[in-house]
Amino acid sequence: xxxxxxxxxxxxxxxxxxxxxxxxxxxxxxxxxxxxxxxxxxxxxxxxxxxxxxxxxxxxxxxxxxxxxxxxxxxxxxxxxxxxxxxxxxxxxxxxxxxxxxxxxxxxxxxxxxxxxxxxxxxxxxxxxxxxxxxxxxxxxxxxxxxxxxxxxxxxxxxxxxxxxxxxxxxxxxxxxxxxxxxxxxxxxxxxxxxxxxxxxxxxxxxxxxxxxxxxxxxxxxxxxxxxxxxxxxxxxxxxxxxxxxxxxxxxxxxxxxxxxxxxxxxxxxxxxxxxxxxxxxxxxxxxxxxxxxxxxxxxxxxxxxxxxxxxxxxxxxxxxxxxxxxxxxxxxxxxxxxxxxxxxxxxxxxxxxxxxxxxxxxxxxxxxxxxxxxxxxxxxxxxxxxxxxxxxxxxxxxxxxxxxxxxxxxxxxxxxxxxxxxxxxxxxxxxxxxxxxxxxxxxxxxxxxxxxxxxxxxxxxxxxxx
Length: 467
What we know:
The chain is 37% helix and 15% strand. The protein is α/β, with parallel strands linked by helices. The chain has two domains: 25-144 and 275-382 and 442-466, 3-Layer(aba) Sandwich (Rossmann fold); 148-273, no CATH class.
């Protein structure tokens, strides 16, 4: 009988300890990239992945600056029933012969990126010299975020609020056909499928009109009416708000209410539980410049939409017993996107305006114990700040290729107002911040997509995990 060699036992024990410690030091973090439509979620996720894979443009991410960053790679995502976020296709759009922005998100997508790094803390280094952070990210249509407030509203409450908004400018003209139909029906009458389908169709047309509006109307509910994903033509999407409170067995009101409650249960609550209730960190992307272009109505609508959509999230300091009730989001970053559309010296003003917009939400989250920060960022930097002479004075302008043009142009984008209420009286839309095409020279750049403060955003969101 041969007894095992002591060296074999030692080696086996070392390998077992290494595997065990590897599992201990392999940390999972779920980052919620949230925001309303046009905020740039798909672009942000694409730029984040590209820069972490290449790690050449992240000087303010401490793990990179200190030389502890080793590498990152894409891994199979943890939820096998969720479509993969197609980062390769989005990068191909940006870096192809005719550089263009990625297509807007039409359905949900998920991605896992694993980051290898050397720990900064001595205790971690004693257990294992290299650690892994698994970063899980979910992308989804911005309209779906606005479904979350429905979880706390009855059909009567939602109908009343929606009808009230629809009757006020600028929504009154957009909703005229649907409201005209409502005036011809009796919600207490016996339910007919044709009436339900007609009402839902007119209401959906109204929501699409809101989406196309120059006022950049953000509060569009339910989101699946605009971006149905795999639920297109489902009876579950065949309802609309109704006036009054005319419940009755077998009535049109009862049918609409039942479908509304089913939508909340089978779509909204499931979506929230599967993708948002497990978040550890959150970044909220906001198109502040787009809201300025839209005028006071667009700014007010966006502010209200943000406050409503953020209310269902659990924000606050994480504690050891949170696994019993679902994780809490202990860090939240509010980011004003597209900062490259204005001159660099205006970024501080853009951040100040963002601070004013989200003051109530930020104070509530901080009260609950969350660490909250604001920044002005650009996931893809498309312009350069240049100085020009105009009528004897220097102007700081931006140089880039505006959408619809084919050559670089120097533009004075205007000045950011001091606060969210700074719309000059008598001028309906005093701002016109242009959008730009992706730069044409990034295809051969192996350093990662150029950006503004993406590394600082990552340091706030993930820096402590990478210590």
